[in-house]
Amino acid sequence: METLENKEETHRITASGDLEVSTYLEIAKESQGERPFNESKSAIERETAVILDFGSQYSMLIARRVRECHVYCELLSYDTPWEKIKSLNPKAFIFSGGPTSVYEKGAPLAPPAVYESGIPILGICYGMQAIAYQLGGGVHPSARQEYGHAILHQGRESPIFADLPTSFPVWMSHGDAISKLPPGFTSLAYTENSPIAVMGNNKGILGIQFHPEVIHTPLGKTIIKNFLFNICGCTGNWTPRNIIEESKRIIREQVGDGKVICALSGGVDSSVAATLIQQSIGDKLTSIFVNNGLLRREEAERTLNVFQRNMKMNVIYVDATERFLNHLEGVIDPEAKRKVVGSEFIRVFEEEAIKLGKVDFLAQGTLYPDVIESARAGSKISAKIKSHHNVGGLPSDMTFSLIEPLRYLFKDEVREVGLSLGLPEEVVWRQPFPGPGLSIRIIGEVTKERLEILRSADWIVMNEIKNARLYRELWQSFAVLTDVRSVGVMGDFRTYGYLVAVRAVTSNDAMTADWARLPYDLLARISNRIVNEVPAVNRVVYDISSKPPSTIEWE
C-alpha cells in the first residue's frame, strides 16, 4: 500500500484507555477557508456529522451520501485539532478509508478526544482498521486481498442493518483486515474473505470493511442513513428552506452596512449566490457580468436578459474581451490559463468597484467540490488535481473580503436552493460551465480564430443534445478544440484541419463521472454537422473516458 509522507507521532489508545505516546501534533489543514455556516449560533439546531479524512478517494462521496440524508456534514483532515472539531458540535463521526496501513510508522490516526467524546463513530475500511488499532484490537495484512464485489452476511442484529436483507452485495477495496477485535466489540457481519466485515460495541462505535458510499454497494445509502438516524439520533433538518434561512442570516451579519459586488457568470452557481445575497441585503448588492470573450455563443445576451429584464437585478455589464485575450496570448499551460483568468476577473471587479464607491465584499458561487479539488499542494493526504479560477487562481493581494454562501454545498443542493429562491428552471438546470470558460476547452493557445471554431462546434453539440431531449440527463456535454490537425478530403481537395472532440458525461456531483452512451445516430449527426458547418475542422472524435482516471474537462 502507498505510504503517506507523514512522520508525525500520534497517540495510540490501549484497551484501558491509556495513551502510549506522549505527544500529539494538532496541525490543521486549512485548505477549506472560512466556514460560512459556523461563525455564529445557528437559528436552527443544525445536526452536524464530521467526516475525518484519512486520504480516501471516496471521502467526498461519503459527504454526498450524508447530505442526501439531509444531514449537514463537513470533511476535515484527520489531524484537525479537537478544539476546531468540537466547535462544530458534532452529532456523528465518520472515518473515511485511506491508502496506507494503520500499523505503518506515521500512519494517520484519529484524535483521542474523538473516542473520548462519547459521540457515535462509523469507521469505513481504513477507518474501521483505525478504530480497531487505536482501541486495542489487531490489524494485519490479509492472506487474500479483497477488491470488488462481495456478499455481506449479517451475523447479529444491529440498528445499522435496519430494513436490510440478511445478505446483500457490497464493494470491497482493502488489503488489510481485522485480526483481533478490540475489547468490548463483537463481529456483526462477515463475507467469504472477511470474518470481521462489520464490528461494533454498545457505545455506538461501529466499523465496516466495505464502502457504503459507492454506487457498487446498492444498499449503502441505507447503511449510512441507519447510522445517522438509528444510532446518532439525527432527524434530517438540512433542507433547502433551512439552508436559505441560515445563509441569509449569516450574509446580513457578515455584510452589515457594507457593499457587495457579485461575480455573475450566468451559471447556476453564481446565479443562486447572487439571488440569495440580493434577497438578503437588497440594493447593497451590485452584480457584475464580465464578458471575458471566453463565453459560448449568445451567452452574454441570454444572461443579461434573465437577470436584468426578468429578475430586475442590478447588473453591470463589462465587455473585457480584448483584455482577457491579450493576457492569454501565448499561454499554453492550463493552470496558467486559470490563474490569468482568475487574476483578470479580480482586476476588472476592482476597477468597477472604484466606480461604485467603497465596496467591501466580493461574492462568488464557489462550491464544495471546487474547494476540495483545489486542495493545497502541501496537504499530506489530499492531492491537488487542479485549481479553480475562483479558489486557487485568485490573486493574493486582492482588496475584497470574500462572501461564498455556497462554499459548502454540492451542485444538487444548489439547484434545490435555486428552485426554492424562485429562479427559472432554465438557469437552475443549466449544465456546469467552467469559470475559465472556453480557454480550457481549447488545447494550446487561445486566439479569436480558435474561439470562433470552438463556439461553432459547441453550438452544434448543444443544439443536437437538446433536440434529442438529453440535456437534463447529462451532467455536461460540450466540444473541445484540440491542437491536433489531420489530413482529410473534402470536395476532392486535400484538407489539413483541426480535430474536435465531443465530451458528454453523466454524474451526480462531478467528483466521479461516466461517459454517456449517446446513440450512434446522434453522434453521427453531431459529427456530420461539425465537419460540414465549421470551417477548419475535418475530424470529430468522441471521448469515452470516465472520471477517474480522466477529469471531465480536458484541461
Architecture overview:
The chain has 15 helices and 18 strands. It is an alpha/beta fold and 555 residues long. The protein has three domains: 48-231, 3-Layer(aba) Sandwich (Rossmann fold); 240-428, 3-Layer(aba) Sandwich (Rossmann fold); 448-542, GMP Synthetase, Chain A, domain 3, CATH 3.30.300. Helix 6 (240-255) packs across helix 7 (268-281) and helix 6 (240-255) crosses helix 12 (411-421). The longest helix has 22 residues, at 334-355. It is globular, with a radius of gyration of 25 Å.
Key structural traits:
30% helix, Rossmann fold, GMP Synthetase, Chain A, domain 3, five-stranded parallel sheet, 555 residues, 3 domains, 18 strands, 22% strand, globular, alpha/beta, single chain
CATH class of the largest domain, please?
Alpha Beta
- Distance from N terminus to C terminus (CA atoms, Å) equals 29 Å
Structural class, from secondary structure content? alpha/beta
H/I helix tally: 15
Describe the biggest sheet?
9 strands, mixed
Q: Please state the CA-atom Rg, rounded to the nearest Å.
A: 25 Å
**Unreliable segments of 5+ consecutive residues:** 1-43, 382-393
Apparent shape? globular
**Widest sheet: strand ordering:** 2-1-3-4-9-8-7-5-6
CATH level 4 superfamily of the largest domain: HUPs
Strand content: 15-25%
Average pLDDT works out at 86
Q: Provide the CATH architecture of the largest domain.
A: 3-Layer(aba) Sandwich
CATH topology of the largest domain: Rossmann fold
